[in-house]
Amino acid sequence: MNPETPLNPLKLQALIEDYLEFLQFEQQGSPATAYLRFYDLHQFRRYMEQELGISEFQEIKLHHLRSYLAHLRTAAGYQPVSLGNVISSLRALYNFAVNRGILQVNPAQRLKKPRVEKKEVEHFTWEEVESLFLAVPRGVAYLRDLCILLLLYYCGLRLEELQNIRKSDFSEDLAELYVEKGKGGKSRLLPVHPFLQRVLPLYLNSGSGAARGLSAPASPFLFPGKGDQPLAKSRFYGIVKRCGALAGINKRVSPHTFRHSFATHLHQKGVDINRLAQLLGHSNIEKTAIYTHTEDDELTEAVLRLKEGKAVYKKTSNCRLRRRLKGDNLNIC
Question: Which active-site residues does the annotation give?
Fold first, then answer.
């Protein structure tokens, strides 16, 4: 049997719907990932049905997949990053089909992602981070807003993780923070920086409306919003951007820029990439590698730190070795 031949015929639309349900309820993919997969896969289905007249999954071959990608590149004007996202969506769909026994192999794995020019991840300098802390406006919400910035920087949280922090997620001594179901449904335990440990009690014990929740005194969330909901994402963005403007930061200021800064500064302090991946909640270490900011001259400098070997400089009776070393202009014999 051809390994690419499905064991049971299946409509492409039905397979896509099954996969999207699996992504949402079993893999617990983020809303952004779910939306991207939905859009990519239904665009793919429409092309197969309308342009190629294919509606059954078993009829789609590797050359059909390549034809679709060529269409996106030429007719739709997709750039390398967008094409790479589509390929990821197709691979995920086909992996799902293999795992469900619908296919024996994944032909989408043979699709090559276009090369994307590596872009430097934007991050703050330490001086900029400090200026952001100092720029928090004094007022009723001062401690709340300061804690938001401190958590973003000292814990490297994603916005959704920050938004959903509950007071009970901290250990009793505030030394640890449990992040429940981050991206991809993964949980992790984070150490809390001593500076943050000193500021958090001031916020929690301040008795301000910002800490209690003006309309929800018993809110379990660290940053309460309206009713029983946490503070809206737009409010977090507004707080961060306002502090950026007051601090005079002339670069993109967003919650995620704090996360980039957290990772970059830790790597600069010597934290290895595996521990960094744990702190960030990355399952794929390739995602963490973007924070290394390694330049070619830095690689050269790193290699030059290795100690020079002494064994090759010792006199030897091996004439072949002597001749080879002499060929390198080393006067050792």
Answer: 158, 183, 256, 259, 282, 291
